[in-house]
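Researcher: Here's my situation. A collaborator sent me these components and asked whether they could plausibly form a single complex. I don't have experimental data yet, so a predicted model of the whole assembly would be a useful starting point for our discussion.
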Amino acid sequence: MAFDAYQKREFKLVGTRVPRPDGIDKVTGRAMYGADPVAPGMLVGRILRSPHAHAKIVAIDTSEALALPGVKAVVTGADFVLPQDAFLADIGENAMAQGKSLYDGHAVAAVAAISAEVAKAALKKIKVTYEVLPHVTDVDAAMKAAAPVVREGLRLESVPDGAGGNVTHFCEFGHGDLAAGFAKADKIVERSFKTAATHQGYIEPHACLASVTADGKADLWCCTQGQFNVRWLCSELMGMEASQLRVTPSEIGGGFGGKTTVFIEPVALMLSKKAGRPVKIVMSRDEVFRATGPTVSTSIDVKIGMTKDGRITAGEAKLRYSGGAYQCMTVEMGGQAAFACYDLEAVRTQGWNVLTNRPKEAAYRAPGAPQAIYAVESVVDELCQEFGLDPIEVRIKNAAKKGTKSSYGPTFDDIGLMATLEAAKKHPHYTAPLKPGQARGVSCGFWFNFGGNTCVTLNVNTDGTVGVTEGNPDIGGSRASISLMAAEELGIPYEKVRTIVADTASLGFCDVTDGSRVTFAVGIATIRAARDAIKKMCGRAAKIWGIAEEAVEWREGAAHPAGPNAGKFPPMTLAEIAAVSFQTGGPIAGHHEVNADGAGVSFGVHLVDLEVDKETGATKIQRYTVFQDAGKAVHPDYVEGQMQGGAAQGIGWALNEEYIYGDDGRLQNAGFLDYRVPVASDLPPIEAVILEIPNPGHPYGVRGVGETSIVPPLAAISNGISRAVGKRLQQLPMSPPRVLKAIKSA
Amino acid sequence: MRYEKPQTVAEAARLLSAEKGLSRILAGGTDVLVQMKSGLIEPDLIVDIKALPGLRSIVAEAGGFRVGAAVAGAQLAEDRDLKKAWPGVVEAANLIGSTQVQGRCTMAGNLCNASPAADSVPALVAAGATVRIAGPGAARDVAVETIPAGPGKTTLKKGEFVTSIFLPARPARSADAYLRFIPRSEMDIAVAAAAVNLTLDAEGRVTAARVALGAVAPTVLLVEAAAAALIGSKLEEAALEKLSAACSAAAKPIDDKRGSVAYRKDVVGVLAKRAARIAYTRAGGKQ
Amino acid sequence: MSITVSTSVNGDAVEFVCPPEETLLDALRNRLGLTGAKEGCGTGDCGACSVTLNGRLVCSCLVLAAEAEGQEIGTIEGLAQGDKLHPLQQAFIDHAALQCGVCTPGILVAADALLKQNPEPSDEEVRFWLAGNLCRCTGYDKIVRAVQAAAAEMRRA
């Protein structure tokens, strides 16, 4: 059996709801977030941003700013030598414009000064001469032949001839004979949808503190989902060697994918290098909205055929995604996810990435999937209504299962969709009678889940305690789950383990905290590092007992002679072995480094009861239940938290959240006042039902749980509203004016 | 920027009159500090009026209430007599911002910030409130609706500021109500708003009414046709429809990120109807 | 032109010098080293900077530092009594009412202000009271449960 293969077992600690190790720091205000550190001689960095959606930067005169007393450095695009690699160059170009402002809020210059007041005054003294160019912010408008071209030269070979000048990428997935499939259908529904760009809306704005010294060494403290990625990107953009840049992640005040890349970090490093002093940059909320990475905005066509007994005969989707003014591959994930919930004979998805004068997309929880699945699940719901079929029964009839050739290629192993649907069907929520005026919406959701590069070091201390060093920022309780897995494997109490998140100099490379990979991949590395330490501890016991290492086994936190032939020795606990480790060969540590595979896909089903005010178009969410397969819930509280949090973000996306651009191409709602994330009084309790269908690719059966939960709310709510008002909604968000319009046209 | 916290009204007026640059009054600061943060204004002088005598209290006067200009929303909510007499005014003021904002925001600030969407202003106008203005000259009292001149603009002259708002005595069987529409349940700016203030006779017939609308014109609207629709009625469906139509017709909104012209005209009529029902019930009317 | 401010923070007399336009939030964080209050928006929309001013819940980003002169400020750093956590703090840990934790100081300060004036709130009252405290991680479910658990604990005590 492969080492990582899942083995059924009884857990002692995994699955319990222990207090998180960083809890007290976080409830007392002691935890250090991105904006909290200070350094001796620290300067304040501020960034000047373009007010134009699209403009040529003819000239930048920084002389007056530099002459202002207290200003220590000014940086513009000219200070950066961008790498040849297009991916890296785009990130650099986004951090500081190179000759052209590509969106409202694009950074054009930055200053470092002795105080915020001086920095602010200095920004006003920078004279930028712009030549305003025609702009386009709507994805459909950008597809048109006559649209202004945002950037030349980005088109990949994948793009077929005849596509507009803003199309940079094309992709296609699927299998089977579409025409034959549609021919078998009793009804074909074809609909077009639009979804607005949304923002992750983390409460902590990006912040960093950079300190570059004259010998070329640098330290960077920042809030990030991946310190190693920050090191890679920043060292490339600064022309530094990776070893000379140490990145230390702070506690992170939310990310949801938005802190997987860099925006202000290279700017702070360059300012620090030029000023010869540490520089801190903290974004304002306005900057966060205008100049970090929202989601793609999309326009999607879906065509599905169904027989009158509810069998889907064919499905097709055309996805047009815009990731802003940059190359963006998110449409690939939308194309792959669109029909992933279904076992289909004929399916095809096609995707186009389109340039617009909007900020560069960054990941947001299941990037690309919510939009595509929203469109597909809306059409499935309409077909259910058409034939008078139960929406869960229809999904059960068509659900992907073990052995299904997925719409994007791979054949599924053990997956939890069917169990999740059955759980939803049996749940009291689904059978609760609806009150007059209420409607119920259902949707499935899917996410791939990632594994990836991961290192863990596990140090056994001489007092019998254990330190786990890992490289992924704790964004929602992962230190607790990692400690639980280490303690479980070692057979020691949870309280004996302390897990810390390392800087880039203290551990090998770890991929970003994204793709729902941490509990899965860091879990594998932790369990393997623990097994490595166990092997070493068994060796020490063997040495003490004078028997062969193979004759020692580890159980319940202690080395035991393996059977009667090994000899009669009292077991030695971890603490006992550790206490004498200096006499038996030195300190004991376990390590593991892996590019983890086998993450195991994740499915969820959401149920929502809602009511629509027919006179104002306002929607009230009244009951909400999330069903999701966690494989094995290591810390159920934080699994539920992921399910509830994703649902809440999806509710916001469905009802109110959107990037609103004016005719001038400027963002009109760059603040929490008019970018409306759900507040406490908007939401009902969110019930989380965890299913545990073990992932064959993880020793404990763990699957990632972070992302799937944002996928179903969009369609679940749209399906509920459409049923409530008697008209199919086809655009997100379903803000009250849009819903009222639908009511009036029904 | 200078920060001043005068101890007398005269001193405050003198500071404001003497300032050559931009000056702003600071009471709760929930608008001024936001405008400073966003770079919309850079005042040269901030005059904090919270130390001025009487500005932080609510006092009974001639059967009504004099509310100091620095009285915070949370303080209004805690005044039982005021809440009983003017439930619509208090609920309107309490809708401004969050609990945190309620700890600071004032009705006078809400009025003088002159946002077309200010929540307390329609309720104050429907209530027939007056404001007392201090300045270089003698104090004067004016009707509340004369203060806003347009978005962000007031009719106050150089050196003038509001020291209190007066809510008059109530006849028997009187009540008011305020409703606004926002996309969320809290924390938004009104998309449309309506305040209704009614007095009933012993039979439950409306004898007096004032209807004011917010967020549907550059300034608050006092709609006489809407009031006329209610007077003489017992809030029958026909009267409510007339009220609603009068409000929709009077509304002169704009299209913006928060709502369209058509949506606002629709919804303001709906809100007026609903507010009228609440006010009617509060006044003891039975529908 | 800088001004000197003498005030009380969590019962301790403190003094600092700042420009007149500086917010109380910036003074707490940058001059007094009290970084528990966070700036999530700077415009009163998120509540991460919540503190009390003479016992009244406010956003410290919407208060000038100068206004603190002679007043009493309460921050998250003053919620625990020495090494003994406030029941709300303990309940937030016990009920996993935080994920990233950046909104947590503001929510705790706000919830404490609520329970001081309403020891037995309904769930709806908790939700409306906390509407000005954005949390993007939890969907608020566990936060409401934790506040109620703390309220019950405090009523028993």
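Model: Some features of this prediction you could bring to your collaborator: The CA atoms of residues 216 and 253 of chain B lie 4 Å apart. The radius of gyration of chain B is 19 Å.
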